[in-house]
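2-oxoglutarate dehydrogenase E1 component
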Amino acid sequence: MQEGAMQAWIESSQFSGGNAAYIEELFELYLDDPSAVPSEWRKLFDSLPTDGAAMDVKHSQIRDQFREAAKNKLKQSGSGSLNSELAEKQVRVLQLINAYRFRGHQHANLDPLGLWKQENVPDLNPEFHGLTKDDMSTEFNVGSLVIGKETAKLKDIHQALDSIYCGSIGAEYMHIVDTEEKRWIQQRLESQLGQPKFSEEDRQKILKELVAADGLEKYLGTKFPGAKRFSLEGGDALVPLVKSLIRRAGSQGAKEVVIGMAHRGRLNLLINVLGKHPQQLFDEFAGKNTTDKAGDVKYHMGFSSDFETDGGNVHLALAFNPSHLEIVNPVVMGSVRARMDRRGCKDGSQALPITIHGDSAIAGQGVVQETFNLSKTRAYQVGGSIRIVVNNQVGFTTSKREDARSTQYCTDIAKMVQAPIFHVNADDPEAVLFVAQLAVDYRNTFKRDVVIDLVCYRRHGHNEADEPNATQPLMYQKIKKHPVPREIYAKRLIDAGVVSEDAVQQLVSDYRDALDKGDCVVDEWRPMKNHSVDWSPFVDKDWDVEYDSSITLAELKDLGDKVSHVPSGFKLNSRVNKVYEERVKMANGDRKLDWGMAEILAYASLVKHGYRVRMTGQDCGRGTFFHRHAVLHNQKDASTFMPLTAIDDKQAPIEIYDSVLSEEAVLAFEYGYATAEPNTLVLWEAQFGDFANGAQVVIDQFLSSGEQKWGRLCGLTMLLPHGYEGQGPEHSSARLERFLQMSADHNWSVCVPTTPAQVFNMIRRQQLRPVRRPLIVMTPKSLLRHPDAVSSLEELAEGKFHNVIGEIDKINPKKVKRVVFCSGKVYFDLLAARREAEKEDVAIIRIEQLYPFPHEEMAEILKDYQHVKDFVWCQEEPQNQGAWYCSQHHFWAAIPDGAKLTYAGRAASSSPAVGYASVHKEQQQKLVNEALSI
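Predicted structure tokens:
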């Protein structure tokens, strides 16, 4: 705005006598929060320059313009002292309003026990802003404060602010940079004046749900005294909170809700929200369940049901998860993303993730930060999530804030993604429900995360056998005397004439009778209907099930042409251009295929026939080792192109995303995706194989045993670069031994393919075979361009992955005196050394699938070597690592009776590899010579 226009506006305003200090302070207030100033001032300030160069202007030229305009006006109107004083007071009022929006939560009544020692916030005192008792009856403009009128007496403004921001809800949202979002929240919060209104019917429903939450815990405590149940007592409002979220989401079009939580309160949600029959739970407590699977404790188990809402039935899924606290959160997000993709939902409106956290866990577990960081990325966004913290104010036995975290609130981590945080007193269930509705509406409006901090307490210890008074004596003395939430709310409704004491007692009695019957106690529960995904083709299938993997040479050549095609005018990097020129030759049959081409052809063949493909990893678009180049980058304008998206008009979608720099949350996300979607080939590639160490909990607790513990099928593929090329201890080993150590019950397959044809058919097998179990692949590095690690189109068209590959040179089996077993890259070192030494009495057999061990295929190959007594296992890894310790019983079972089996490889080591290339080379030569007896 030009200076003349600005001065004309100031002269025409109701504050025409205002001085420079008033205008400057108003502008500074605007800079903190545009919504804090009246609309006419906001319009003026909005019109000022906002580009980067203007940032200096606001503190120099703009300020000088304001001063000059004010000075000129004062000359025209005399002293203007009265108007000047009123104008200054007006700014002070607006500053007070802004202070409440920023810091009112620090004086809110959040702790049911009254133990929180909140620091005094001077900004919330009118006197801090120069406002006295004499000003309390003065009318001021309320600015953007939403209280139904433009002006009000200061005492009424102050009372309204206290009610809105310092009652049972403490709202943190001023850290959000988007003004529209802040104004939206202000409108919703302030219009209620801190007193949300609910109908008598709604209030009676709240009471009934609190009766259920309390009743189940008391029933279990009486029927199974001392048994661990991780009760919800103290946080009973979680039940009406979650049910309200589901109802609200369903009324706005949600079709599925996925819930993830640790054990606190889980049994209560299973019975009182998801509708699990109480009798099933009682049988579990009584130990009546039998299964041939490993199973899991009852407070780790998941459940599925349908829940009736005004918008139709919503499918609920409570995710299975171990006691690794927050690890289930990215799993839930992945499951929701799969459901969105299946429904063609881009904004998350049809699927809602709800995650329930502990106060110590959300602040202490790093996967929380990783998951928040996923929330707005292309590969992992789900349209926002709702995060509930069951804030017991104690983590196991730690209740001192300075021991549990370094922040005021346990929820401060959520500010990294500008999520609004609503702290709410769990003893005020109406405030809880208001926040629930607000959270769903915010999430659906802005597609962002939102956090509800349910401040409550834990009536018992960490579990029911624990003694909490030993470590929290004052807290538990208070808890012992504190009435349960159901009693507090019942008294509130009785006093308001909404219900009678007899009606309350009848609710308690009716709920207990329902538990005695053992039937479902959730009014909204509905029988599950068929869902859009069918897992039945994959249930109870073993590895040897037959499937069609055939593919013709003609189809392969056609696919080769398409994956090698680059649009006209799309300028490739010179090195990438060379890769694509070679791929054209490979497609024509003029050159053998390398690893990258074979892999790309595998994905192309799947999407052409309707199988969706999803791949993520830190460098997976290009490939860490410059081999894949599935995503091309135009050197002119940085646009991208994926040849795999242009295979066929009717092809299935394929998504390849370079992931955030995370292993734990990303792998857990992909696990969640794969457990919800059997018809998509889901792959995660580690940048280096040992990077998977950062996601070990996902591998240990979900991938390796999810089927045995929970019956959860999952076809996730992990690509882990592995091989000893002298790159030191950090980038040599994908820790093959860890996967083999956990191999049992046919839980997954562990493969070490050595040729392009093998990787082509392995990838296709993983999706075409009607088995959905994880595939762990030790992928190569140097073999990606090794001259001998190539395959013909005919070898790809064979359509079979060979679990074992026998001798390829023309060696007379009868002359063989030693057979060397090996796996992976070392095979090519052995082959080269044997050829150079012209040894014809040593045969080399590659084991391409180490688990499940291919005994039948091995027996067939060893038919020609039954006379051999000398067998060797050769590996690059140290003796205490790799396959030797975990798989030698398979090798012993394979060799002829009376034969011996010896080891050739590096000596045992605490480190995966040496750090010096010269030492590596010496070790490698030694182990190869030893294996071949050179």
